[in-house]
Amino acid sequence: MEEPVVTENAGIYVLRWPSKALSIRVDRLKNRHDALSGEISVLSEQPASPGLLHQARLNLSSTAARDKLIKVLHGRWDIPDWDQIIELTCLRILQHVRCGHPIVRYADMQTREHDLYFCQPFLLNRQANLLYGEGGSGKSFFATYLSVLASFGFTDPRTQLSTMGGNVLYLDWETDEAEVSERIAGIVMGLDSERTDAGLYYRSCDLRLVDDIEAIQRICVEQQIQLVIVDSVGLACGDVLEPAPVIEYFRALRTLHVTTLSIDHVRKNPDSGKSSAFGSVYKMNLARSIWEIRSLPGQEQDELTLGFYHRKVNHGSLHHARGFKVSLQEGFTKFFPQDLAEVEELASGVDLKYRLYKCLVSRTLSKQELHDILNPDNDPHGVKLDSIRKTLERNTKMFNKIGEQWGLVAHATNDLEV
Fold this sequence. Notes:
By secondary structure, the protein is α/β, with parallel strands linked by helices. The protein has eleven helices and 20 strands. It has a nine-stranded mixed sheet, sandwiched between helices. It has a five-stranded antiparallel sheet with strand order 1-2-3-4-5. A two-stranded antiparallel sheet has the order 6-7. It is elongated.
């Protein structure tokens, strides 16, 4: 009996026998009570009679279940090898699931075959990314913007943001199709495009991600999805205060083998003044790159100012804060770069070296004067005088002390990414 050609992607197995013009697909695998079961679809690929022969849920470990399936298949297409075909199907899938991925010697390990970033600096490629912030801060808006850039293959000439490109799946637990559609249309029009052929797919969701993962896996495979947006984690995960549901959530994301961006809400620590994603600490532990978003309070409806602050990355160094101004006028949504050091309410998360540089352009100031500018309310969680002193003294190629005053070194330029 010839061996089948076996492929696996996102938990979906396809076994093909080219000489027999036959394929078997097995997905929605569940392991309960030491028995592995899955939904099996048997398809004929014969030119004269292609199509589905039978579909059922099969206990891959049960001899009785296999015998029953073989009997049904003989009645649909009478070929002599059904017993061996079904036996091989069950055996190969059981072996793969129970053995897991093969071990690899260091000498044989592969180097990175893909870019580190799907969208620099916001999305690590083929990793779990997290964006958190307060309600109404623009999280979903920005995620939609990235979705449009990816699915249309755009580079925004104003922000210079671009992505690797690819089909996008937007999983929505919070709003509805009409609202997301309007958001997409405004962004596309703001990019001066009339295209409608993007590989951008929307799906309204009700179940927890782990309870719906098989259907999402199938969509990712069939539509060749490269980026999945989850909006938002609270409803997609369940009880985010407990470690187990959060761990299950990230484990499910990992089975998709694509870049993911999870949108989440914020939790503030009143003692430290710092913030993090709401719920279990495992969110911050398991996401590979994490950004916080803040928006300027009391903004007009036709304009948003957004600040992004990099809180964690597992590869390389943290990126400097990034800012955008968003214009929403007459159905057009346009993103523009925004220097956060010039927005007092959002400047606290900007690199201190850059904020000092901005303060000292065309003038000299003492450490105390700099402190009064950067922390006018003397906030205990704000910039400290000692931090200013250390930053000035450590960066002598940029800052120069003249008596008790500090200024910029002649010909010093800002080489910071902001």
